[in-house]
Design goal:
The complex is a heterodimer. By secondary structure, chain A is of the alpha/beta class. Chain A has 13 helices and 18 strands. The radius of gyration of chain A is 21 Å and the shape is globular. Classes of the chains: A alpha/beta, B alpha/beta.
Chain lengths: ~425, ~325
């Protein structure tokens, strides 16, 4: 993170995307002392003081910086896959100004000292903000509640065991009860480990034809259903990290209509791709949860539009060549995504499925609200974490040019339309 | 013990539940007088002379068992201690068989502690003598509640209208349950303060205010009663760690300052210093923890005398 004090900077002649109001309006935004000092049509070059650095956006979009609610940053313990420096560089290039870091590091983020370490490393080596998600249980083993109070004081913004489901309902119930007392958010990866078994892709015809073991949709819905009942019992704030099926959407929609404090997220991969993209055993598309059918993908996109799905994440998961250049069933799960999440999201805007404010809402405002961050708003006083992007600029994804230490992108050589040109964090240029 | 106390209209003392305010106050009045007996050089009384008292402890206890033993001996009873380590229970005898066997030895009173809630009631139905509950599972510990009420009354002059905060492991605590009933019956406003994981479900319907943080829970408290957190419960199952528990729920000077300046600090013992209570507070000027132990003997004498009055040939 750069220091706060920078000369004032104005982005003018822009299309301002306000995810809270749901509007796109002509105007400018002035950043001073790390925060938005003024915003709207009156922010024009003529109206600004002489000490302000003015950037003419030439009609490009300006939006709150993206908040990626799920990304693996490699530190501590997996620096060969990613470091905070490389992850935040990728983030800045992709318009992500806050990364919520996964807790499944080595050692895991289950101790206040490790959370403190991560925050210090982010301050010293990162170019965008990093907010740690701490482990919900000690060692992420699903048995003992982690120190939710002390970890919150250390700076953790949420609690989850990473991509590992909590099997024991009694432990989950007590963790929820305890978290509720501290107002802490539980982020859970709903997957029944027994049903998922050794599955490597969506269960169904395509998996059967490829001769690969499948993960049924029910592996997700059964755990999600259980969790909704536990939330009703305990009153805990709960966020399903990743949903991938229409069944899950139904479950979350029902819980929301009952007034339960429940939200959910989806990965950009599941909105932009489906199981058929796996094609000839492409391991970069081996994901957890697995890519589903086209019908499921359409249902997920519709759920983002109507707000049942709150958050879109990159699910950035760098994997090195050695773990991906293997037969499909033996390869690791995961794909990088920080740098391409906005471009991939813009596909849905160009196809008419989402509006720009809807996309930005799911990538900035909603994660900010859910994780208790001040970012994500285009309003006076909000942190000046801003991005400028041209939603129409065409390019081809070149894995070699990605900033991440790993190149396992499912959008390998894909044609994209829409690219980030400038990323500001606290009013300072992080990229561009 | 010279004045004839009000009649205690029960054969056993199985719990505070079911006692009237009059019953409770009667026992506390008697106990208040018994305090002086123990403070004299000549402590021997003869209310229970010729009576046989069996202390039947299925669960290890130092202070409660010795307190009952001393109480019985000061009243002139023949006291026999029977603990699980030496009994035939280890050999597989059921609780009921143990009760029938002991009953055949014609005791006059059996003091029972058992790890299972309801076990004392079961035993009471199978014997002909008086039974005193010295703690059954997470259910009741009536003499503890009585001695706590006595300690409070002797220090504050009353129980009525006081704010009493019971803090800690309410879920597993028989002390909490008996105190909630006893202190509420005596007109105190009782609150429980604990993380949700250590609160029994439906506790808010037991006539108490429920608090989940010490600041609000101790606000204006006249009495702060801390409960023991067992070691096996502080490693992630109910609370994450002893350090986190102490940070948010351990009684230290900072948290005690939320209570009234003259608030009493109490603990049924044995204490985990540095977990639920800081040493400085446990041994500080507001602490009544040692006084509670003294009151324990007096209360148990009062209970034994009250029950003896109802025995045949009394």
């Amino acid at each position: 993170m750069p220091p706060i004090s920078h000369p004032p900077l104005a982005l003018v002649n822009a299309r301002l995307i306000d995810p809270a109001a749901g509007t796109v309006a002509q105007g400018g935004v002035l950043a001073r002392d790390g925060a938005i000092a003024d915003i709207g049509p009156r922010v024009t070059p003529g109206a600004l003081a002489s000490d302000v650095r003015v950037i003419d956006c030439a009609g490009d979009c300006v939006a709150p910086g993206l908040i990626d609610a799920q990304a693996f940053v490699g530190e501590p313990g997996a620096e060969y896959r990613e470091t905070i420096a490389s992850a935040t560089a990728a983030a800045a290039a992709g318009g992500v100004t806050t990364i919520i870091a996964r807790p499944d590091t080595q050692p895991p983020l289950d101790d206040p000292a490790v959370v403190d370490f991560l925050l210090r490393r982010a301050r010293d080596t990162g170019v965008v903000r990093v907010a740690p998600m701490a482990a919900l249980t000690r060692g992420r083993e699903g048995r003992e509640i982690a120190e939710i109070g002390l970890l919150t004081e250390a700076g953790a913004v949420a609690f989850g065991d990473g991509p590992r489901s909590l099997r024991n309902a009694q432990v989950m119930r007590r963790a929820m009860l305890y978290a509720r007392d501290f107002g802490a958010l539980i982020v859970h990866f709903p997957e029944d480990a027994d049903l998922a078994g050794s599955g490597v892709m969506n269960a169904g015809e395509f998996a059967s034809r490829l001769g690969l073991p499948g993960v049924p949709r029910e592996a997700e819905s059964i755990v999600l259903d259980r969790d909704m009942r536990l939330v009703a019992m305990t009153g805990a704030r709960y966020h399903a990290a990743l949903v991938s099926t229409a069944q899950s959407i139904e479950i979350v929609a029902r819980a929301k209509s009952q007034g339960l404090p429940v939200t959910c997220g989806v990965s950009i991969n599941h909105l932009a791709l489906n199981e058929n993209d796996i094609g000839d055993y492409r391991t970069f598309l081996k994901l957890r949860p697995p890519l589903r059918s086209e019908d499921e993908r359409r249902a997920l996109v519709a759920a983002v539009a109507d707000g049942v799905i709150d958050v879109i994440v990159s699910d950035h998961d760098p994997q090195d060549v050695e773990t991906k250049r293997l037969p499909f069933a033996e390869a690791e799960f995961g794909a990088v995504g920080l740098e391409t999440m906005l471009s991939a999201g813009l596909r849905l805007v160009h196809s008419g499925d989402l509006t720009l404010p809807q996309l930005v809402r799911a990538m900035s405002l909603r994660p900010a609200e859910i994780f208790g961050l001040k970012q994500g708003r285009l309003e006076k006083g909000a942190p000046a974490d801003l991005i400028r992007f041209d939603p129409d600029a065409p390019y081809v994804v070149d894995p070699e040019k990605l900033r991440s230490r790993c190149k396992n992108t499912p959008f390998d050589e894909a044609r994209m339309q829409g690219r980030v040109k400038l990323t500001l964090v606290a009013g300072a240029v992080a990229e561009g | 013990m010279s004045k004839r106390p009000p009649i205690f209209p029960h054969r056993h003392l199985l719990g505070i539940e079911g006692l009237s305010r009059f019953d409770i106050e009667g026992l506390i009045d008697m106990a208040d007088e018994a305090v002086d007996v123990s403070r004299q050089v000549e402590k021997a009384r003869d209310s229970l002379r010729g009576r046989t008292q069996i202390n039947l402890f299925f669960e290890a206890s130092t202070r409660t068992q010795s307190s009952f033993e001393i109480a019985g001996k000061r009243l002139g009873a023949d006291v026999m201690n029977m603990s699980v380590q030496t009994s035939s229970v280890k050999k597989g005898e059921t609780l009921i068989d143990t009760a029938i066997t002991l009953n055949a030895m014609r005791p006059d009173v059996i003091v029972v502690r058992h790890q299972a809630a309801g076990a004392v009631h079961l035993l009471a139905r199978k014997v002909d003598c008086a039974v005193v509950n010295a703690g059954d599972g997470a259910h009741e510990h009536p003499t503890q509640a009585l001695l706590d009420a006595l300690t409070i009354r002797r220090n504050k002059g009353r129980v009525e209208g006081l704010n009493v905060a019971i803090c800690g492991d309410i879920l597993h605590s028989r002390v909490a349950r008996s105190n909630i009933i006893a202190l509420s019956a005596l007109g105190a406003r009782v609150r429980v303060v604990a993380p949700s994981t250590l609160l029994p479900s439906g506790v808010e319907r037991m006539g108490v205010e429920v608090h989940r943080d010490m600041r609000s829970g101790l606000q204006d408290a006249d009495v702060v009663m801390m409960l023991r957190l067992q070691r096996e419960r502080m490693n992630g199952a109910f609370v994450p760690s002893s350090r986190e528990y102490f940070r948010y729920f351990g009684l230290d000077a900072e948290k005690l300052a939320f209570a009234k300046p003259d608030a009493l600090v109490m603990h049924p013992g044995p204490m985990n210093r540095g977990v639920e209570i800081e040493s400085g507070v446990a041994d500080g000027p507001q602490s009544r923890i040692r006084e509670q132990v003294e009151m324990g003997v007096a209360v148990r004498m009062a209970v034994l005398v009250a029950l003896a009055r109802n025995m045949p040939n009394a």
